[in-house]
Design goal:
The complex is a heterodimer of chains A (293) and B (393). Chain A has 293 residues and is mostly helical. Helix content of chain A is 74%, strand content 2%. The longest helix of chain A has 32 residues. The model of chain A has no long low-confidence stretch (mean pLDDT 88). In chain B, helix 1 runs parallel beside helix 11 and helix 2 runs parallel beside helix 3. In chain B, strand 3, helix 3 and strand 4 form a beta-alpha-beta unit. Classes of the chains: A mainly alpha (293), B alpha/beta (393). At the A-B interface, helix 1, strand 2, helix 5 and helix 10 of A face strand 7, helix 7, helix 8 and helix 9 of B.
């Protein structure tokens, strides 16, 4: 029988972790929902963002929060360039081309990572100094609390951008019906460029957040891509709120599941949920068959 | 060294060559890379010793296995295809050593593997060519009990927590720890499995705290162990005694954690502080070849690698040949004396039960020191106990 305080601590830790899962998935969800592209390189872009933060921290001593902002900016630019230079030329040529291009990009990023930084895990996480926090008898790691707050800020910022800005409105219109949006004067090509920039930028920011808690290697991309997929399926494609809820559910399920079933079950729980949601509610908790917010 | 007197010089043996050729892989990249350089140094110093003692050229073919068992196999295949290999030496960790061993068994080439505590393959896979001059799981458990006995009885903690890696060795080592320490009167209050390669230890930390774990034992990978200690600190929990076998073996432990990694114990086969068995020669050779700063000690994997070469040297001397069958016969019958102690082998390649005392090391001021058994060698020190709370460090 698991003690109540242990369960409470496990749930709270799961929520904190789920916040980062949600950010990791948000970019994937937006790109999928708006552009109808499955970004198979999303996890590897997250890995690049993590290394940007690590390099800034180790070489220049810049705080992880600055690292997160820079990682977002770097990946934002890379994402826009990717869309403008590569993807734009293959979109519309069928479902396979973008997938093959992005799968290839993932492999290229992984190999480049191995060549540039080596295979070793960055053993020292760029932790944020601070004492553990006690809530309702549960002890929570300070870096986790900070990264959770940053995650929520990123998610709310993205939601507000989509909801309250003209560009956000154009993005949502493009997601709902790109032809109609074009007739209404929306430059959908630019919207796609911007969307991939935001999506990859969020991946970079998520990577920077993860580097504050966990070791990073050039190989972490696939693992986080799969977790992001689970969150997107759970929350519903293109839904910011769904992604947040999906991330939190995944984080809590993993942590509580591990408490009762053991650590060997962590991935089984993640992907068990993934399969279950696909079977029971294929559009996710907040998604609709049309996608979008 | 008993049983090896009266040796003559080699005749070149069944290898058909005047050069003894040894193939080995080490993890220069990947998850075990922080140990690769030290293992390599141990092998190279050992080969120099073999060259001197055997009056015959010894060629060491060494390549990076990228901490990947498949690469171990590929590299060994390439080396044995292009050379007349007389012996294979092992890499690091059960994961990689068993890959090399499987290849050697298939090829009928004598194989020596250290840094490999897992006993299961020796018992289950009918080893004929694999020999492991290294303390095994049962020895690690005995050593843990011996380490705890160093604490005065009135101060000795009793609650043991085991974080069991979900691997064959993880389960085997956990079984031995539970059995040995329970028999010695300790309470195993927690035994929880975790996914090898896991990066999130928060649940295990919470469970350990809740179960009042005082002695924490586990077999994580180096990155996993370092992450776990970082997370213990950020969750403001630590045990009174911490023994992370393998994770705390490399210098990466200290370079990543610094003082946060102090007090951690490990069981790496060899630790600075041991005496006899050629330890003095190892120190001298190391100083000459690589140099040592005033307060610097030799890294533990160097001794483990050197011990492999010493075993090989004594086997070749006793067999007076590099013929595989002759070497196998000698490995099964003779006694060997190396920097890790004196031991013989069982037919399945395990060091004979009870022969080896697994030395326990402890991190202190940037070095690994022998704390068990009690010795007076360079680098030995008294066991530091208990680990103070994070706020007092």
């Amino acid at each position: 029988m698991v003690a109540t305080d242990l369960l409470v601590e496990s749930v709270l830790n799961g929520l904190l972790l789920g916040g980062i899962y949600a950010v990791a998935a948000l970019g994937l969800s937006l790109v999928f929902g708006i552009m109808d592209i499955v970004n198979l390189a999303h996890g590897h872009m997250l890995m690049v963002g993590a290394y940007v933060a690590i390099v800034l921290f180790t070489a220049l001593g810049l705080t992880p929060i600055v690292g997160m902002v820079v990682a977002f900016a770097v990946l934002f630019v890379l994402g826009m360039a990717l869309q403008r230079v590569v993807l734009e030329r293959v979109v519309g040529e069928g479902m396979e081309q973008p997938i093959i291009v992005l799968f290839g990009l993932a492999l290229i990023l992984e190999s480049l990572g191995r060549i540039v930084v080596g295979s070793d895990a960055q053993a020292t996480e760029i932790g944020i100094p601070g004492d553990a926090i006690s809530i309702a008898g549960a002890t929570l790691s300070f870096p986790r609390v900070v990264t959770f707050v940053l995650s929520i800020a990123l998610i709310l910022g993205t939601w507000a951008f989509l909801k309250y800005t003209t560009t956000g409105l154009a993005i949502r219109a493009t997601a709902q019906n790109s032809s109609a949006a074009q007739y209404m004067g929306v430059d959908t090509d630019n919207i796609y460029v911007l969307t991939l920039g935001i999506g990859t930028g969020l991946a970079g920011a998520a990577g920077a957040l993860l580097s504050m808690l966990f070791p990073i290697t050039p190989y972490v991309g696939w693992s986080y891509l799969l977790k992001a997929f689970a969150v997107v399926v759970l929350g519903g494609v293109g839904s910011v709120a769904g992604t947040l809820v999906g991330g939190l559910i995944l984080g809590v399920s993993e942590n509580v599941g591990v408490l009762y079933l053991g650590g060997g079950f962590r991935d089984i729980i993640s992907f068990g949920i993934f399969v279950l949601v696909l079977l029971v509610r294929p559009h996710g908790l907040f998604g609709s068959s049309g996608g979008g917010e | 060294m008993s049983g090896l007197s009266g040796c003559t010089l080699l005749d070149g043996g069944g290898g058909g060559s005047e050069t003894i050729t040894i193939a080995a892989t080490v993890p220069e990249t990947g998850q075990f890379s922080s140990l690769g350089e030290a293992v390599k140094q141990g092998y190279e110093l050992g080969v120099t010793l073999m060259d001197e003692e055997l009056d015959q050229e010894v060629e060491l073919l060494l390549s990076d296995d990228e901490s990947d068992p498949e690469v171990v196999r590929q590299e060994l295949q390439q080396m044995t295809s292009n050379n007349e290999v007389d012996m294979i030496w092992g890499s690091f960790s059960s994961l990689l050593v068993t890959a090399g061993s499987a290849y050697a068994e298939n090829q009928g080439i004598p194989f020596l593997g250290a840094f490999f505590a897992y006993e299961g393959p020796h018992r289950n896979e009918g080893y004929e060519w694999t020999y492991s001059p290294f303390p095994k799981s049962r020895d690690v458990a005995r050593s843990t009990s011996g380490l705890l006995d160093l604490i005065p009885e009135g101060e000795r903690p009793s609650n043991v927590g085991i974080w069991e890696a979900n691997s064959g060795w993880g389960e085997e080592q956990s079984d031995y720890w539970e059995e040995t320490l329970s028999e010695a009167g300790y309470d195993v209050v927690l035994r929880e499995t975790y996914q090898l390669g896991s990066e999130d230890f928060s649940s295990l930390i919470s469970q350990s705290d809740s179960a009042n774990v005082e002695i924490l034992l586990s077999t994580p990978t180096p990155p996993g162990g370092i992450t776990a200690v970082n997370q213990m600190q950020s969750n403001n929990w630590s045990p009174q005694v911490l023994k992370f076998v393998r994770a705390a073996d490399p210098t990466a432990w200290w370079s990543a954690l610094g003082e946060t990694g102090a007090y951690a114990c490990m069981c790496p086969g060899w630790v600075p502080g041991l005496t006899g068995g050629g330890n003095e020669g190892l120190w001298s050779a190391y100083r000459n070849e690589y140099g040592l700063d005033d307060n610097e000690l030799i890294r533990s994997p160097v001794g483990g690698g050197y011990n492999v070469a010493q075993t090989a040297l004594q086997a070749v001397e006793a067999a007076d040949s590099t013929d595989p069958g002759e070497l196998q016969s000698v490995l099964r019958s003779e006694t060997f004396n190396t920097v890790i102690g004196e031991f013989g082998f069982e037919d399945n390649g395990l060091p004979a039960e009870g022969d080896l005392t697994a030395p326990t090391g402890q991190w202190w001021e940037g070095n690994q020191h022998t704390v068990y058994p009690d010795t007076d060698g360079t680098g030995a020190m008294d066991f530091r106990y208990p680990i103070p709370s994070w706020s007092e460090r």
